[in-house]
């Protein structure tokens, strides 16, 4: 079947390009996102060499970004012309893959439109599944619905994975009614019955929207259809209840998990439950469940220790914080940058500048690179303590490092100078990064009043 063209008249997927890419860059390299504790996903900052704004990026990372963006834009430009219908497959497919991984949904759909025009194009449900998953992450349910119609026009039969991705696209965007309708539609198709993964996605959407009252009904339907919960399903529910401080429901779900016989608690379960109690300051319950999971044979990882350290720090139990750090050292668990950031932030918020500086020095002595989170914690602590000259020192360190800066860092610096009443430096920071603010897209610079507290909300 000849593919139907995607145009602004029938799909509303047109996109204008303002910056021409380099001619010879048609491939991009992919970078893995580290889902570590307290990490931040941010657009990269770049400025004019004559600007006085604060900026640093590793050359290798900047090169990767430029190659990827150039590859996407080079292919995307060709999508605006009707004559490019026999392009090199590798270039088009890699550009599409890069756009999806970067969640650039407009570019991805434009490149996909170009892909469908190629003589060698063969429709595949796997491509549609990936696009639908991306659109779900980008909260674009309408585009997902249109894409599903295009799949049908390409002569493809939707698979369970396609339907599940569509469930996610609706659910993550807050359209739970449509998500449930898709599941009902699946139940009427013999070869596309919803499976445990479909229901896990649906439950995850309910939890993210705080529609906990719907979970019981979904579980009852799964039981009626003979679909057993997987460890992922149980962990999704446990983690959701924990973050909502619904501790009784959380523990009941853990009991159901253990009694099911088909799923057993794992490290994710361990960390979710002690993290839930730790975040709420229920230290006794956190310690009780830490011991319980140890008796089940589960062993802690670096994230477990980070949860303990942060929980003890938040509760002001600094002695126990140090005990965890000593235990890690004895058991040869090397503290990560996340661990150091938690400790530095904790002592900084407590106003213990001396201890904070000791751990910062230790971090550098171990050869661990500070991150923007590290520097933000230092700036915040110095600002609250009235050590504005030390804020100046931090900025000089940043200027001589290759740390990738983000908007929360600049907001923190602006807040610090605002609190100190140094309007001149405040204006310098803002004006030096105004252009980058427009480029960043995902974040916003905010000029803080001096009365506001300088913190990160990660």
From TrEMBL:
It comes from the Eukaryota. GO terms for molecular function: mRNA binding. Residues 1-33 are annotated as: Disordered. The keyword Repeat applies. It holds the Pfam family PPR_2. The keyword Repeat applies. Residues 1-18 have a biased composition (Polar residues). Keywords: Repeat. PPR repeats lie at residues 124-158, 159-189, 195-229, 230-264, 266-300, 301-335, 336-370, 371-405. Belongs to the PPR family. P subfamily. PANTHER family: EXPRESSED PROTEIN, PENTATRICOPEPTIDE REPEAT-CONTAINING PROTEIN. This is Pentatricopeptide repeat-containing protein. It comes from Salix udensis.
């Amino acid at each position: 079947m000849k593919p139907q063209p995607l145009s602004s008249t029938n799909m509303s997927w047109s996109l204008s390009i303002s910056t021409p890419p380099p001619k010879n860059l048609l491939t991009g390299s992919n970078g893995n996102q580290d889902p570590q504790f307290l990490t931040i996903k941010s657009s990269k900052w770049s400025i004019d060499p004559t600007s006085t704004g604060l900026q640093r990026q590793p050359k290798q990372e900047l090169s990767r970004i430029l190659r990827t963006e150039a590859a996407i834009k080079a292919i995307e430009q060709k999508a605006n012309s009707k004559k490019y219908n026999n392009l090199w497959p590798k270039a088009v497919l890699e550009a599409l893959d890069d756009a999806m991984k970067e969640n650039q949904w407009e570019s991805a759909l434009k490149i996909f439109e170009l892909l469908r025009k190629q003589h060698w194009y063969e429709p595949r449900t796997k491509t549609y599944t990936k696009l639908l998953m991306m659109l779900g992450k980008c909260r674009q349910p309408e585009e997902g619905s249109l894409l599903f119609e295009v799949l049908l026009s390409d002569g493809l039969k939707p698979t369970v994975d396609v339907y599940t991705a569509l469930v996610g696209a609706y659910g993550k965007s807050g359209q739970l009614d449509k998500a449930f309708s898709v599941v009902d539609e699946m139940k009427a198709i013999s070869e596309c019955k919803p499976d445990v993964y479909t229901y896990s996605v649906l439950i995850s959407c309910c939890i993210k929207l705080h529609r906990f009252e719907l979970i019981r009904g979904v579980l009852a339907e799964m039981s009626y259809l003979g679909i057993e919960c997987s460890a992922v399903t149980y962990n999704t529910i446990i983690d959701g209840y924990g973050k909502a401080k619904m501790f009784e429901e959380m523990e009941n779900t853990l009991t159901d998990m253990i009694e099911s016989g088909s799923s057993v608690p794992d490290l994710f379960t361990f960390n979710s439950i002690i993290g839930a109690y730790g975040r709420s300051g229920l230290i006794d319950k956190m310690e009780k469940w830490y011991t319980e999971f140890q008796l089940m044979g589960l062993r802690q990882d670096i994230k477990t220790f980070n949860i303990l350290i942060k929980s003890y720090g938040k509760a002001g139990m600094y002695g126990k914080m140090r005990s965890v750090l000593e235990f890690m050292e004895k058991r040869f668990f090397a503290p990560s940058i996340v661990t150091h950031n938690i400790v530095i932030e904790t002592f900084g918020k407590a106003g213990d500048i001396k201890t904070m500086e000791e751990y910062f020095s230790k971090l550098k002595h171990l050869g661990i690179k500070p991150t923007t989170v590290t520097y933000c914690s230092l700036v915040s602590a110095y600002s609250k303590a009235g050590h504005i000259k030390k804020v100046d020192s931090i900025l000089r360190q940043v200027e001589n490092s290759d740390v990738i800066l983000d908007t929360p860092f600049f907001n923190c610096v602006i807040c610090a100078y605002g609190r100190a009443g140094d309007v001149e430096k405040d204006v310098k920071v803002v004006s030096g990064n105004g252009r980058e603010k427009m480029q960043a897209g995902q974040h916003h610079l905010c000029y803080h009043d001096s009365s506001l507290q300088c913190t990160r909300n990660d």
